[in-house]
C-alpha cells in the first residue's frame, strides 16, 4: 500500500507525512528525491525544451526503484508526493509536455 500526501508547495506535506509515518512505524519517502531547493531551481530556471521534465522523470524512475526495494521489506509506504503530481504540475509549468508525461506514466 502506498499512502501519498499531495498538496501545493509549502502546505506542510513533508512535515505531516513524516509525522504520520513515524507515528505508525511506516517507511517514508518523497518525490522528488532530491531536495526542495534543487526542485525550486529547476522550476524557476528557464530551461530549453524538455530538460526540466527529463530531470524530474529520471528522479521518478529512481523513486520507483526505491519504492520497489522498500516494498520487499515493508508493505506500507508513506510518500510526500507521487508521480500524479507530475501530471498536475506539467499542466502549469510545461503544458507542451503533458501528453508525453501522461503517455509515460499511464
Write up what this structure looks like.
This protein has 106 residues and is mainly alpha-helical. It has helices spanning 13-24, 36-44, 51-73, 83-93, 98-105, and strands spanning 2-5, 27-30, 77-80. A 3-stranded parallel sheet has the order 1-3-2, sandwiched between helices. The longest helix is centred in the middle third of the chain and has 23 residues, at 51-73.
Task: Tell me the distance between the termini.
Answer: 19 Å
- Shape, principal axes of CA atoms: globular
The amount of beta strand, in percent, is: 5-15%
Q: What is the tally of beta strands?
A: 3
| Sequence of secondary-structure elements | EHEHHEHH
Strand order of the largest sheet: 1-3-2
Q: Please count the helical segments.
A: 5
Structural class: mainly alpha
Largest sheet: 3 strands, parallel
Specify the helix fraction band: 55-70%
Whole-number mean pLDDT: 82
Uncertain runs: none
Radius of gyration from CA coordinates: 14 Å
Secondary structure layout plus pairing:
Layout: E1 2-5, H1 13-24, E2 27-30, H2 36-44, H3 51-73, E3 77-80, H4 83-93, H5 98-105
Parallel strand pairs: 1-3, 2-3
